[in-house]
Design brief:
By secondary structure, this protein is an alpha+beta fold. The chain contains 4 helices and 7 strands. It has 3 domains: about 1-35; about 45-145, Ribbon (Umud Fragment, subunit A), CATH 2.10.109; about 150-175, no CATH class. Helix content is about 45%, strand content about 25%. A 7-stranded antiparallel β-sheet has the order 1-2-7-3-4-5-6. The protein is elongated.
Length: about 200
């Protein structure tokens, strides 16, 4: 009996530690992603990005999530998929883009200049994007795609989605508190009856 009780306590203790560890990692990821998004891939080794345009279809579709890993520009090759920053509208604002590597060259000072390209169905149509990507602009190397989950992520990031999460968290918290209160009430009644 004692061994069973001890093993149950140890199991509960390990389960609690694992639960709080996972929650802690998730919370730290959310905080870093919210306040220091450029550091996420450096700290955790990966980062997801929601695809917003059709430039890589049907290979990668709108609302897919591409997960990238830490970039190693020294090992990049033509045809690799990368996520990077580029001023696609020539307005001085850099956007996040996921495209193929078209070519990699060194400039006169030895820095890498990366040309990228979108997806083309016909190989004869392939041409490079109008911008140049520097090593500093490369955010990550493509790891894998999670189809269609971008719809949920964009909703959760919207003001309405954040409000919905907050309201639901408050409701769940209230239900948990009420249920715990109800469990304690019968025990208290038994205690009162046994003492009379």
């Amino acid at each position: 009996m004692d061994n069973k009780k001890t093993s149950k306590k140890v199991f509960r203790w390990i389960r609690s530690i694992l639960f709080f560890l996972v929650v802690g990692i998730l919370l730290s990821y959310i905080v870093i992603e919210a306040f220091f998004p450029s550091q996420t891939v450096k700290i955790y080794g990966f980062k997801p990005y929601v695809v917003l345009t059709q430039s890589m279809e049907p290979e990668i579709n709108v609302d897919d999530v591409v997960v990238v890993t830490r970039p190693d520009t020294e090992t990049l090759e033509e045809g690799d998929i990368i996520t990077f920053l580029a001023d696609i509208n020539n307005d001085g604002v850099k956007n996040i883009v996921t495209h193929y590597v078209y070519s990699i060259e060194e400039d006169s000072s030895g820095d890498l200049e990366i040309r990228t390209r979108r997806h083309y169905e016909d190989p004869d149509d392939i041409s490079p994007d109008p911008w140049l990507v520097t090593e500093e602009d490369v955010l990550g190397e493509y790891l894998f795609t999670v189809p269609n989950i971008g719809v949920i992520i964009r909703f959760l990031q919207s003001p309405f989605g954040l409000a919905a999460i907050t309201v639901n968290a408050l409701i769940i918290g209230a239900v948990v508190v009420l249920l715990k209160g109800e469990k304690k009430t019968p025990e208290n009644k038994d205690d009162v009856q046994s003492s009379q």
